[in-house]
Amino acid sequence: MSPADPQHEAWMGLALDEAREALATEDVPIGAVVVGPDGTVLGRGRNEREATHDPTAHAEVVAIRQAAAALGSWRLDGCTLVVTLEPCAMCAGATVLARIPRVVFGAWDEKAGAAGSVFDILRERRLNHWVEVYPEVRTGECSALLRSFFAAHREERPDSGPPAGPPS
Prior knowledge:
Elements: H1 6-22, E1 31-35, E2 41-46, H2 49-52, H3 59-71, E3 80-85, H4 89-97, E4 102-107, E5 132-134, H5 139-156
Parallel strand pairs: 3-4, 4-5
Antiparallel strand pairs: 1-2, 1-3
């Protein structure tokens, strides 16, 4: 594995800041930023599914929408998407459709990842756009934030057995 890119690590710090902000609304702490070709942050996002009751309000989608609005174009050529967790199929698809050429992510998502773990939508040769993938940037921090969140939620809602049947 090649040495970490200091710029990727700095951008991941911004994504981690966004992820921590998601905790205020009890959303899963995932954060993302879209960085333009000149290094300017064009979009920021955090999971907002709980806050907005929108199943598509993933950090990546929020950041991509903001970046597209900032550029006045749906084509995000030359941009980089930086996200704390490997994108899911929806977010990987949005990345391809937005023509984003690079994705940098922190932690692998072994259950729903679509950048190489479960699926590899970002590098699917049958699609019309392919994405360079830079995984495992500040993995420890990204993983620890998620582990802590889920551990706290398991403590709040201990498993009380199977769901109860209909009232009698």
